[in-house]
Amino acid sequence: MIERLVAFSVQRRWLVIGLIAVLTVASVGLAAHLFRINTDVERLIDKDVPWRQDEINFEKAFPQRTGTLVAVIDGSTPETAEEAAAALAKALAGNKDRIETVYRPDGGPFYDRNGFLLMSQEELTKTTEQLIQQQGLLGPLAADPTLRGLMRVLGLGARGIKSGDAKIEDLEGPMTRIDETLQAVMAGKPARLSWQLLLSNGKTQSTELRKFVMIQPVLDFNALQPGAEATKLIRSIAQDLKIDDAHGLRLRLTGPVAVSDDEFATLADDALLNNLVTVGAILLFLWLALRSGALVVAVMITTFSGLIVTAALGLVMVGELNPISVAFAALFVGLGIDFGIQFAVRYRADRFEQPDIPSAIRAAARGVGWSLTLAAISLIAGFFAFLPTAFRGVSELGLIAGVGMVVAYLFSLTLLPALIAVMKPRIEKRAVETAWMAGVDHWIIEHRKAVLIVVGLITVAGIPLLFKLPFDSNPMHLRSPKVESIATYLDLIKDPETSPNLIDVIAPSVEAVPELAAKLRALPSVARVIDIQTFVPPDQEQKRAIVIEAAQLLGPILNPARKPPPPTDADTVKALKEGATALKGIATGPSGGAKAAGQLAATLEKLAAGSAAMREAANVAITTDLKTLLTRLGGLLNPQVLSIATLPPQLKAEWITSDGRSRIEVHPSGDANDNVVLRRFAKEVQSVAPHATGAPVATTSSSYTILGAFVQAALTALVLIFIILSVALRKPWDVAMTLGPLVLATLWTLMALHIVGMPLNFANIIAMPLMLAVGVAFHIYYVIAWRAGVVDMLASSLTRAIFFSALTTGTAFGSLVLSSHPGTASMGKLLALSLFFTLVAAFFVVPAFLGPPPKQPDPKRPEGDDAVPGRKPARSEPMAVK
To answer: Which residue segments constitute the domains of the chain, with CATH numbers given?
Structure first.
């Protein structure tokens, strides 16, 4: 039947070429219309898996927390960071066409008024005591929040040092900061004095210098980067607001949308150059294998036509590609060219003996048809073994690649013969063999016991390495740390206060939150727990009492009844000179404080002698954040009575669903990027809340899901291939000889992983069952040749075909190594490594396992398996090499 199909394709060559050309062109249009890549790694797992169901249920309960962009703003001072975040949030809120929601999780009017009540009682007591101690500083500044008022404070401080009521060391930091600000103003540079840093003597928490804006953009799923328009808008607004390095600010974007968009950009990065290098290398190997431009062109047309058709079929079947299924292209090119090389090399061998091209093509079909069919069926079975697994990314890859093998097989028996008949390659003047390899054949047969013993010893010695093989289940390690979104994520994860590696738990009601939160806080791996009670603290009455007491002392000071009139420039000059004089009086001695006082005094004198415009600029730089501080203190000292009913609607929606359920946020202790820490954290939290969800749960659970999928796919592929080979070969020993070396190659690959320090991960683990499917094709070719009585197999054109097929396959797989995407690159590395051991097993272990071929061909073999590429049964004399 195979021969008849090939004969028809040769006879009706233009019809076949025309029909496949039309199919290819139609597939180009269909693939272009449907093409889309979903780079969300979380979607690689089937949605019916229990932990994925928990994720989906959480997303339904809090939809505003999904599909988000996170703007991370770092400022040189707390004031500039807060202002930038507030301005960005306000500007974005006005773009409803591209932004659905904007939320400030760490700032805004609610925090400006109730921030004291959200502190712990210990922290609140300490803060209010410090404010009361600084009332001597705050009073004059509240009455006169100008450069003149600051000079008065400096004068008071100098008198206190002289009288012994204060120490000059206490003023060294503030004087240095004031001097730096004024020096920057006089140099014409942007400057602002941070009063929050000044009052805290430069001590601040990372969360005060880093602010967040949570953005839920309108996503365009017809675009390759759905969040690109929103990202462009955010950066444009940030530029208009001068959120940049020149103004002491830095904006970075992260979050699921940014990560997804950046991941696609990484996948596309250098794609053109990598593909050109890959195609060039494949063309070189094809030329070395076929030595005919016509045959090379025919194989390449067949391969890429099949690739286009497969891409269209794949998109129709799965709707969108993912970071793993996109690798079908490399798999198809590698394996599709294998079919083409097997047929074309066999054609060359038969063209040496056949009188014309049609006869040689038909002879090639007889010779290679059976082994090619059996290899194709085994490959299809191997790929389809992924379909039942819960690892959706791999199951989709298996579906596309399996269908692609059907396409490649049919095109190799229809389009390729038709193209060969049309292009009419030149006649072969010499046999297609590698004579010098006959010596290797003989050596292996003569020393087969020694070869098998060495193979056994190496395998047994490497078994302990299998127990040390790590599995990296962290999906972030599959992404490039060079892109902004991932680099930002890795930066945030270093700080427990900002780490996104947290777990969300949903309590059935608000009333159930305290008991559940208490159980979670008691867990050793939990650092802190945030819930709705954090914003409605049960001890707020005690806190309000502390705040009211502080307000009674500070209120009159912050709101003086009498204020002096605004200073004129002459008033400012006078105050600057008086301040300089007061500081000179304490600028004695070698201490750092004395030096700071002397330096500031000199700066004040220069400013007094400068222009009025310079003094006005200095006044703005000194007092801008002072006025903000005084206003904010007034609000903090007058908090509202907090209840769930009085919370801002947007804040309330972040913690309570419309049906009354309440979210609890759990943060880990220890290194939040350590897999062991996260695994323990997830396990402990799930012991209290089985349906908890979040990155640590997903990371831990997905590792079990993926490992299970890998084992399931590998065993399924092995069983399916075993059944296929058993039916086809009908001899258990022949089946064992086909599969045994493959198992060894798989074990060697896993052992080598430990030696080279490459862990298994989400992406590269699929290489193992894939190579089981790929490797069985090579071994089938050898076993069928052996059954046909072929001797000197390494010297035959069969080995030539397998060798160059492996080179092209390895090049296609190796192209993945060049990817800027770490997950794709790791898959390419493992595929290439596995291919190497598969070839070692095919070239050396299989001949040793098989031994000398049977003297008589098997009478029960299917039609056509008595002829194999390049050599006739029992023919051992070497011939010249082309």
So the answer is: 2-39+265-473+700-850 (1.20.1640.10), 127-190+539-636 (no CATH)
